[in-house]
Amino acid sequence: MTSAAPSQKLSKRASASVLKALRPFNSGEIKVLLLEGVNPTGIKVLTSAGYQVESHAKALAPDVLKEKIKDVHVVGLRSKTQLTAEILAEAKNLLTIGCFCIGTNQVDLEYAASHGISVFNSPFSNSRSVAELVIAEIIALSRQIGDRSNELHKGQWNKTSTNCHEIRGKTLGIVGYGHIGSQLSVLADSMGMKVLLYDTLQLMPLGTAHPVGSLEELLGASDFVTLHVPETDETKNMISDRELELMRKGSYLINASRGSVVDIAALAKKLQNGHLAGAAVDVYPAEPFANGPGFETPLIGCPNTILTPHIGGSTEEAQSSIGIEVATALTRYLNNGTTLAAVNFPECDIRTPTADQKTVRILNCHHNVPGVLKQVNKILSEFNIEKQICDSRGGIAYLIADIVLESDADLRKVYDSISAIPENIRTRLLY
């Protein structure tokens, strides 16, 4: 990959008496493409940084995206846009990607990393929104609110208490005890539910939550089962006919994680034959590219089944927080080279810029093989290195170094020499 060239305006440096802020040589040259209605808070952060920001309310068709992505430095997206290797191959200037959501499975992370493209997301900001939705669904399922509402909309009065229950004293089984699962655990605990949890990691339970040793044990002991796991090969169809049969007769299933986690046809069968008393599903194996009619699923018409269009994190509060969190991470990376919280890059940071106006920050991404750092340090050893940090993640290594350079000729020499290293992926310069 061709490395990003330094600006021609290298000699225009402020007085040494002023504390220097690190940034791209010309922030106005940074082009940002935002898709799928990124919250205005994120747009404000990026425009305030001086970047050129183009924002779209919806996802773009692949052929349109391929054309749009050719000359941009930043892409921001949510869950519908698929940044495959084929599409990323068109992005010759792309430096970083912001996923304004929890998941990153819509991005080919390995391809991005191997081409020096960092990826950031928001793993925390919508946790509360999803947890609250699940609590609402637990209550709604337990009281059959969805069915009663539909009946009344059709003019049918059906006041009944049959198979309607309080949630106090019932057992909630949480599969996946991460940010969402743990928050849900606290909310359910405070409402008088008994909470069981299952996770592949050994995690500290909150409140009175009790860990169990297997998924099977949790399924057989829970009145409500809720899923909060990532999309991986291991979680694909982790809840299928066998697992549904292990669930208590008359229990409920809630999925607000990923659509591939549940075998939808098997779930519909268990709802129709009465083995399960209800379900709430917010995510699906295949979701529409845009809003509108035509969505189909075997769950349509199933009794006491709440279907929502992937709205778990769709609250004003969550989207506002996500906009700030991801846009700030992108700005820090562009302006300072900071990779803290990147999902596909080593996490490196040098927090304090130097006051010396002759100092330049070198950012280098290279293949993680023996001898590369030795080559880089040999180049840098001719100059005063004020600060330096390097780390690796899988096959990628990332280095930040602040060095004192006396002239633009020195700057060009350092840049060209590091860029010429065979294992180099991308080199950037900040001042």
UniProtKB/TrEMBL annotation:
Pathway: Amino-acid biosynthesis
Protein family per UniProt: Belongs to the D-isomer specific 2-hydroxyacid dehydrogenase family.
InterPro entries linked to this entry: ACT-like_dom_sf, D-iso_2-hydroxyacid_DH_PdxB, D-isomer_2_OHA_DH_cat_dom, D-isomer_DH_CS, D-isomer_DH_CS1, D-isomer_DH_NAD-bd, NAD(P)-bd_dom_sf
PROSITE patterns: D_2_HYDROXYACID_DH_1 (PS00065), D_2_HYDROXYACID_DH_2 (PS00670), D_2_HYDROXYACID_DH_3 (PS00671)
One MF term in the entry's GO annotations: NAD binding
Record keywords: NAD, Oxidoreductase
Gene3D superfamilies per UniProt: 3.30.70.260, NAD(P)-binding Rossmann-like Domain
Protein name stated in the entry: Phosphoglycerate dehydrogenase
Domain D-isomer specific 2-hydroxyacid dehydrogenase catalytic: 32-344
Ranges where the D-isomer specific 2-hydroxyacid dehydrogenase NAD-binding domain occurs: 136-312
GO biological process: L-serine biosynthetic process
